[in-house]
Amino acid sequence: MKNVFILIGAPGSGKGTLSKMLVDKLNIAHISSGDMLRAEITKGSELSLQLKELLSEGKLIDDNLMTEMINTRIQQEDCKNGFILDGYPRTLQQVKLLDKMLSQSEIKLYAFYLEIDDDTLIKRITGRYACANCGAIYNKYTANPKKEGVCDKCSGTVFTTREDDNIDTFNKRLGTFKAELQEILAFYQKLGILYKFDATLGKDKMQEKLLEIIN
Ligand code: AMP
What we know:
It is a single chain. It is built from 9 helices and 8 strands. By secondary structure, it is α/β, with parallel strands linked by helices. Strands 2-3-1-4-8 form a 5-stranded parallel sheet, with helices on both faces. A 3-stranded antiparallel sheet has the order 6-5-7. Helix 1 packs across helix 9, helix 2 crosses helix 3 and helix 4 runs parallel beside helix 5. The chain is globular and about 50 Å long. The site of adenosine monophosphate (AMP) has 17 residues, from helix 2 and helix 3.
């Protein structure tokens, strides 16, 4: 039976880090809805302009369109052992659409909720930057490269920030995230598959807890 992990957490709560742990442990596909949308934007398709505007304003993409994109993605070969959904579902409607989509599959479903306070989030988001060459993530307050201005992983010297990682857009994204959070958590709680993580715990403790759950 394949494992499917749903990661629920505000922007900056560490869904990417937890995903990486799961990928390393279980060799399953990591599906980030935000990354999918950003990739679509770079294609210059008809949809790109529309998506670009929504993302830069911190607004959500239509539930059906997002679900369709995810549905196409999970049919791919690399998802056959299982996959991680990072950033999807984000609304109660998406939760219901996903539930329907997976209802015929033989899967074991986990919903992981990363709990974190707003102040920590703001620091993580407004300080976040990445190496333009390899994508390694840094933070100007808490995690700069060992040598200033030089990427630890690939020695690149050009860095970028995400357009939506500014305080105004962040506040909107956080508000959007919180809008239906309780209903989403209640849905998975009722199914008995909700696991809560303290997202400020640090990588080692998070990994420990993760292993306890999946083993
Ligand atoms: P993220 O990288 O997960 O923070 O997502 C970046 C942006 O992509 C969000 O602020 C939304 O505009 C859009 N987005 C990502 N996932 C979803 C989703 N499941 N439903 C609707 N919009 C999404």
